[in-house]
Amino acid sequence: MNENTIKSWLADFKAGKLNEEKLIGYLKNLPFEDLDFAKVDHHRSLRRGFPEVIYGEGKDIDQIVMIAQKINQHGNPALITRLNEDKIEALIKKYPDAKINRKARTALLGKDPKSKRSDKTDLQGMVMTAGTSDMDVAEEAAETLEAFGYNCDRLYDVGVAGLHRLMAHRERILKANAIAVIAGMEGALASVVGGLVEVPVIAVPTSVGYGANFNGISALLGMLTGCAGGVAVVNIDNGFAAGYMLAVILRNLESAKK
Fold first, then answer.
1. pLDDT, tens digit, 9 for 90 and up, residues 52-78
2. Is 169 a residue whose pLDDT tops 70?
3. Is 143 within 8 Å of 106 (Cβ atoms)?
4. What are the start and end residues of each CATH 3.40.50.1970 domain in the chain?
5. Residue 180: helix, strand or coil by DSSP?
6. Which end of the chain has the smaller Cβ count within 10 Å, N or C?
7. Are 48 and 76 in contact (CB under 8 A)?
8. What's the CATH code, domain 116-257?
């Protein structure tokens, strides 16, 4: 929900298209809607600028659908992350028009918000990976950014084992207003990119790597101790957090331009 949604309610009430009882019901659920098993935070889009996102792990399909429906009813698309294949198939049956990304394990239910924002701004985020094996985390980041209405440029498999691959795209990289760098192994790509650009870089360590990688700990520590300034680090395999941060950065740049 956003200010335009509330204005629309008030306009409909004034025009007699919305009765008092219905309007009170909408306003009553503004802080949150209690579904017993979940407290849906409808106020989040007003407070944070972006709606609540549904974390799919640990929830059954009926719970996911009910939360998504409530989010949709308040004028927001519902992004669902960390879905397994069974839940994806169940969502497709209920929502044939859902935007599904199996690599990212995400689903977007409701109107795609990109037409609302990305067509009106030239701001762009970039999601970059060191290797092809990092793509699932990168796709989660990209889908999150796009679910919040911004364009995402994807640049994959440009890790430090072959820096010529990265430098071949230097002009493209310099066009991004914020960059998420996703890498496993030793996580070195984040420092390299941080030393090339003047925009914020969000480093995402992944659990990709051999035994001494410790399921992403080596990449996490490498990114935390990197020498390049302007690089912030999120949790292991947390593409969602990176995509969200990209969106926050772009939204603030957008606001500064007005």
1. 899 999 999 999 999 998 888 878 889
2. yes
3. yes
4. 116-257
5. strand
6. C
7. no
8. 3.40.50.1970
